Amino acid sequence: MTSAAAALVLSGGAAFALTSGQAPGTRTAGETRLTAATAQVPATFRVYQTNMCMWGPDSSGPCFPKGSAAALAKTAEAKRASLVAQIKYWKPDAITVNEGCSGDIAQVVKRLRAAGYDYSYVDQEAGAANTGHPRPCWSSATRGHSDNAVIARGLDASSRTGGYFEPVAKGSVYQHNRSWVCVNVKGVRVCTAHLALISQDDNGNAPGGHLLQPRECAYIRDRLLAPHGSGATVFAGDTNISRSRVRVHCAPTGFWGLHDLETNGKYNGVSGLQHIYYSGKLTRGGTCGEMHVVADTDHKGYLLDLHPAKTPTRGASCAWRDIRH
Question: Per the domain annotation, does 4 fall within a domain?
């Protein structure tokens, strides 16, 4: 799929791509156009946050291990199959995917639809960096470009907005570019993003993660979430905020939220990076969320069931996961 953002909608067995018309590298300035969802929120709204590390091989074995062309193709297929299996098993209302690939996400949704699951999706390209082009996914053109995506049932593709946090242009001083996307799902506004790692590209030659991550976090708080606090709004994404900075988060006043920290003390390098925030129109009830092993990626999945709330309430006390104590 060549668009920067697309929703796959099937009708009578035919697939149609609905595109936003956004040119690569263009920031969408119209996030305020996405008004609070008006449909009735279901009694339980299940959110499942994932980071699938689909982009391509690097030095991190658990993420996407290097190998022969055949081995890399096998890994890419394993990631697609893994995401399909997770969705079939947990049946979330909305799955947020970071480090996806546009072609892979389209294939995942196609397989779900073929199996009788009524899912569709929107996405936003990522990783344009200073080339002015999104980061291609290894190695087949059918895998598309890197993206962040929301896969959901009851998704309103016409409500989709998305863009980059940083300016994107050929020759830009920005060495990497992170993106976000939001869409209405069953009366809930769902957003996802993948933030810069605090130490990324911090080489003195370009704005590094120590400058970019706080700016991206503020954008989520002030632009994507705070204006929509009067409605049912959820953010789920890989913030790259490490567990050593456990009190740092991107949630505005009036929102609750959780980190994906384990309870057994057996933390790894990605523990706590994934966050879920939700507005006062929702509550987590008696749950603190669930961590689940996802095959063929270095991140676990973070599942949280939310419920409509007439009166703002956090829900269960989750001292080790709460973003506010």
Answer: no
